[in-house]
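Annotated sample (chain length 311).
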Amino acid sequence: MTVIVRDFRAADAAAVAEARRSAFPYLVTTPRTVAWEVASAPEARRCRLLVAEADGRVVGSCELGLFPDAHGEGPGVACANTSVRADARGRGAGSALVTAAEEYAAGLGAAKVFAWTLDEPASLAFAERRGYRRSRSSRIQRLDLTRAVLPPPAADALPDGVELRTAADLAGDPRPLYETDVAVMADEPADVLEGRMPYAEWLARTWEHPALDHELTSLAVVDGRVAAFSLAHTDGRGRYWSGMTGTLRAYRGRGLARLAKTHSLRRARAAGCAEAFTGNDSENGPMLAINARLGYAVASVERRYVRELRP
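Output written by the structure step:
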């Protein structure tokens, strides 16, 4: 099999989405989201989407770019995530993609590169042979919405002063969700600490994401403020992904994240979604507990790896 690595073309979108789903079956990805990710990438991140083509067929891809505002890391921190179709592994496509990605990152001045991979023997061995070292892990969890026993709607049992709304209610001004989202993101476990995302970038990257379902994204509002929320991504194929669920520090311990997520899941089931997926850092005890109570079960584990490209 002859492998060629080249830059993404618009005509590749469907093949890249299919390859990603083959490699990571829980992903909510579509040709539209693939094309959008390339077209909307912030210039400062110097993003690039590479594809591996074997005998005229796209069998894998690697999305890479810089963390331009990485605090405490100095200049030049990159991220490169590679996926190869399950039926094309072991034939050089992954190695070709990673080599090209590392060369590109080094050319941008990156001193290190981070990557996610499945926590399975073949994938871990591949990363470690290339000089990557293990970092934190994330648990991918699945909920069968066709069988899940979710708490029933209970608007009359909401805590005093709490309202459940959807992102669609903020269509005229989503800034309240932005303010809560960026505050919660600052508390998320991460290898690289980045600065506060500007509102314009958040609008482009989060609010206008083609997979974000505003009707299924739920908000717990207290005194007019978005105290907790659960973002919902869908793919039109019956799959739902929790893009982010969180609560402002001042409102934690009141069950608001669970309320918002339950509200979103109920609406997702009513809209025809059959499977719900979510990912949590393995050290994020509170969110893992919420998902366990809702009936999620671990479907896979991902491992974060890092490689030093230069001292």
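Annotation: The longest strand covers residues 133-144.
Annotation: Residues 93-107 form the longest helix (15 residues).
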